[in-house]
Amino acid sequence: MKYLAIVGTNSDVSTNRMLLQFMQKHFSSEAEIELYEIKDLPAFNEPEDSDVPEKVAELSDKILKADGVIIATPEYDHAIPAVLKSALEWISYTSQALTDKPVLIVGASLGTLGSSRAQAHLRQILDSPELAARIMPSSEFLLGKSQGAFDSTGNLIYSDKLSELDEIFREFLLFTDITSKLLAEKVLHKKIKKFTWEE
């Protein structure tokens, strides 16, 4: 599987980035995970013409080519960061590249809740008609007290959280496979569908 892992913050120092970097290394034998930074994307502003900013087009292309998307979000005031919301608004307004794309949401925070409210907020956004992503159900990965969660080499040291992450990622691999087969069947049946007067 090839996944695009979106770092959902513009902060230069982020345990959410560290989490995705760890996942990239830890699951390298099971999937190819490419990290993507959204901090260089322009803030969303409805363009006067049809030109799409180069960075937005790049993100859309990477999403379209990926088998699935992993989004790591911190929590700011019970919600996702503005930079992540802006990136999703660009996708919604332009390519709608997340439509039917399998998505896994993860999150880390310095507090004990591990971005739970932000993850709920993100699910709601991704479920909107203009994005319509296929979000893996019952799959919250909440990494609380994340400032002490990684050692000097970037490895996750909370054994219970490592086991939880392993299980969730295995489920996401299966979810991606099932979703792709479901969508393939959907396209096939759509092509061969007959109108009632043809039967």
Automatic annotation (TrEMBL):
Protein name: NADPH azoreductase
EC number: 1.7.1.6
InterPro entries, per the entry: Flavoprotein-like_sf, FMN_Rdtase-like_dom, NAD(P)H-dep_reductase
Class in the EC hierarchy, top level: oxidoreductase
Ranges of residues in domain NADPH-dependent FMN reductase-like: 1-146
GO molecular function, a single term: azobenzene reductase (NADP+) activity
GO cellular component: cytosol
Source domain of life: Bacteria
Species of the source: Clostridium chromiireducens
Entry keywords, A to Z: Oxidoreductase
